[in-house]
Amino acid sequence: MQTVYLDSLLLLNFILDYLLLLLTGRAAGAPLHRGRIALAAAAGAAYAAAVFLPGLGFLAHPLLRVCAGVVLVLIAYGACRRFLRLTLLFFALSAALGGGLYALSLMGVRVALEPRYILLFAAAAYCLLSLASRAAARHGPRELRRVVVRVGPRSARLTALVDSGNTLRDPITGAGVVVAQGESLAPLLPPEADFRHPCQALPALKDPRRFRLLPYRSVGVEQGLLLAVRADRVEVNGEDWGARLVALSPTPVSDGGGYDALVFEE
In 3-state terms, what secondary structure has residue 230? Predict the structure, then answer.
């Protein structure tokens, strides 16, 4: 009979659920709220431990496990419009992890008794799937969207390329950031908002709470900073994305001028 240590079980399931939920959000392009993801992972760990408590073995029923998975996604990402996609992705990734662990067991690795193998496999799977999803996103179809950016009483209309490989996000909320050619939004900004020199511009702004510096990397730029403005409203093809950070690129975002902004796949 195998002895189950609840403390190890809690820690192991918390880490696995956190990685699975994080990868689910990244693959779906959903805003990442790490506090909520951690809370969901803690709930998942508590559920996994409860299965082994006296009188609670019924929690291992497959239907209850499915319900628990749905609840975890709901805690981590809320009842958003991509909830079904997030849920299916979570179950698919969980199945992939389980299948990988079963394959290891067939090769003689006693994963049930060696939590370290499970953690190593989960970490390796997370890295590989993250790279695969980013590579697939970079080579996806080129789609254009009509974008309206509103800052105060003014607005600007842009043409944006859907770039699902764009990983630029608001470091506070985790929401995706729209990247716009700075000159296209210049009429909405105060004169002191010099997006070509973001470090010098930020201290001179009269309303610094609306602006922020965002670190970024791109081809030929190992590490740089972009001036970003918090738009009061962003509309993409008529769909309201609400208040959103818009990063101001000092250089054109399109080689041929066919678009002047980049949006992530919402």
Answer: strand
Tens digit of each residue's pLDDT (9 = 90 or more) over 100-111: 655 555 555 554
Cα(132)–Cα(166) distance, rounded to whole angstroms?
14
CA distance 80 to 9: 31
pLDDT band at 207 (very low <50, low <70, confident <90, very high): confident
> What is the pairing mode between strands 211-218 and 239-240?
unpaired
**Which residues, other chains included, contact 138 with Cβ-Cβ below 8 Å and sequence gap of 6+?**
165
Q: Above 80 in pLDDT, residue 122?
A: no
How many other C-beta atoms can be found within 10 angstroms of the C-beta atom of residue 46?
A: 12
| Each residue's pLDDT tens digit, 30-88 | 667 888 999 999 999 888 888 878 888 888 888 888 899 999 999 998 887 678 888 98
Under the banding of pLDDT at 50, 70 and 90, the label for residue 171 is: confident
What is the Cα–Cα distance from 212 to 249, expressed in whole angstroms?
13
Short-list 225, 226, 231, CA closest to 243: 231
- Strand-pairing partners, residue 227, are 213, 248
Q: Where are the alpha helices (DSSP H) in the chain?
A: 6-28, 34-50, 62-77, 83-106, 115-138, 182-185, 198-204
| Angle of the 115-138 helix axis to the 6-28 helix axis, nearest 10 | 0
Q: Hey, is 23 helix, strand or coil?
A: helix
In the structure encoding, which two tokens stand for residue 193, read together?
Answer: 């908002």
CB distance 223 to 229 below 8 Å: no
